[in-house]
């Protein structure tokens, strides 16, 4: 029988990701961008498999269906941006839905096309003061982290009259949960911490870890980092904080400010590469930050050996624990059952292709039942707090909230702390999320 000819069916091979060709002048050519947007939009219109993901696809299909031709050629070019604005680079369409990703000959990479559009627009127009502020996590954190300022900001962020004024002035939605700021950061809490543990390597781990705290884990949720220290060191894994960190660059990536991403990389990669050279594996408590080092920076800088070195040493915390468990290096001396747990799987963890490692670890706890929810929370870090997108983000999150409500769990959790807050915002029952590392610490009785 001869070899098949013609267009091949999609999804028959594992997807491959091409590097982001952002150094090529053609990447920034606006006419070429519009041509590629039209090509990809036409393919998406003919498929519509991704309609249940983010709002980019319903926005596109509504534009097509409401046009005179009911085809992409009937959509005004200026309306193409309505699709771009709703993409927050979760990557789920590429990794879980699209049948036309490479190596398919149509070579469709929707998230990277949206990123290209955002970058072209940013270079041409810049961004609003609000969007620049929301993506400048280090600058905001350094200022709001001042003790008196932190107290005032945290109080103001929870007062509805002030939030309504803030919405009118800044465009930050009054009903969005905003993260707390801690003047006593993780770095301050762990200052002087020294472990007397000796690294016990396995075939895939060195047995000692450098924690990239992330700007969120350092200033907004330092308790998660403390939980990681406790859990890892209980399992004989010495942990240190990375020498320094700047924001991983994910907020700037989603804004399209690729130069800022490169600047953050120039700070973080040398520091992390030195930790790898010293024999440390790397972990981060926020999936988006881990993904930045495991995928996005390697795709932006495919020929940088230091970026590759950091990529190969980076792990999700529960991925790391399960690698240790497979070789008998994880303690199961749990003291406290967790009961029924609703576990939301963040998009940026799903697309790491590591499997449900958080569930696998938590299921080791006796009398613990995990209800896995693989739906987007719609948060993204900045999307859910913007006035024009908050209600849509809550609509995206509604199936997740419904699942948690029906389960009536003892605990609900997400590896992404911001996704957890988004679910909390939908539940409106006063019950707060608990990070999986917090639950594991609870189970160990630490």
How would you describe what is shown here?
This protein is an alpha/beta fold and 446 residues long. It folds into four domains: 25-125; 129-170, no CATH class; 186-323; 330-444, Rossmann fold, CATH 3.40.50. It is 49% helix and 6% strand. The protein has 22 helices and seven strands. The protein has helices spanning 30-47, 56-65, 80-84, 92-97, 110-125, 129-135, 137-144, 147-156, 160-170, 186-189, 215-220, 222-234, 250-255, 258-277, 287-300, 305-313, 317-325, 347-350, 357-362, 390-407, 417-427, 436-444, and strands spanning 209-211, 239-241, 281-283, 314-315, 339-344, 368-373, 411-414. A four-stranded parallel beta sheet has the order 2-1-3-4, sandwiched between helices. The longest helix has 20 residues, at 258-277. Residues 1-5 have low confidence and may be disordered.
Q: How is the quaternary structure best described?
A: single chain
Task: Report the count of strand segments.
Answer: 7
Question: Which regions are unreliable across 5 or more consecutive residues at pLDDT < 50?
Answer: 1-5
Q: Helical residue percent? A: 40-55%
| Mean residue pLDDT | 90
Overall spatial form: globular
Outline the biggest β-sheet.
4 strands, parallel
Helix and strand element order: HHHHHHHHHHEHHEHHEHHEHEHHEHEHH
Give me the secondary-structure category. Answer: alpha/beta
Number of domains: 4
List the strand order in the largest sheet.
2-1-3-4
- Alpha plus pi helix count: 22
Query: How much is the radius of gyration in Å?
Result: 22 Å
First-residue to last-residue Cα separation: 64 Å
Strand content: 5-15%
